[in-house]
Design a protein that fits this description.
Blueprint: H1 2-6, E1 9-10, E2 19-22, E3 27-30, E4 37-38, H2 39-42, H3 66-69, H4 78-95, H5 108-116, H6 130-139, H7 150-161
Helix pairs in contact: 4-6, 6-7
Length: about 160
Amino acid sequence: MFDLHKIGIIHLDIKSLNFLCLKKDLTIKLADFGQGFIINEEWPEQNDPNQVANIGEVGTSGWKAPELIMKRVFVKNVKALDIYSLGVVLYELDSLKLPNAFCGGVPKERLDKMFAQEKYKLPFSDSCPEEYKKIASDCMLCTVERRPQAEKVVKILFDLANSSV
């Protein structure tokens, strides 16, 4: 995802089901770019910080960022949509559960609004390392400007993978 963001591409449907693992060397690949955008082609004029990003209905319920659910996405923050979804994937890796697994029969729209209004946060396991929980939670912050950039997420996860945590 960091490499995509570096070249101006947003995926807009990051979820565990869109990651492929090559058995041979355990290389992870991101798939299904059907909802993605090339930022400079879609919004060539990015000077206005209040320019609304009209991206339509994208993403998957349970992985959607609050601003996407509330239809308040600004061009300057489109990459943060992928960051939020990555945080949900990190939750899945810890809990081994889909983000909507705890909700039973709650309709998708209502579930999305619960997350968007911070009425519910995904529960990490008791065995989840604090540093991992922190970066995953930071990715899922409702305040877009407080979410980390992809480069920072990669660095922290790389450091965690190479530490004794």
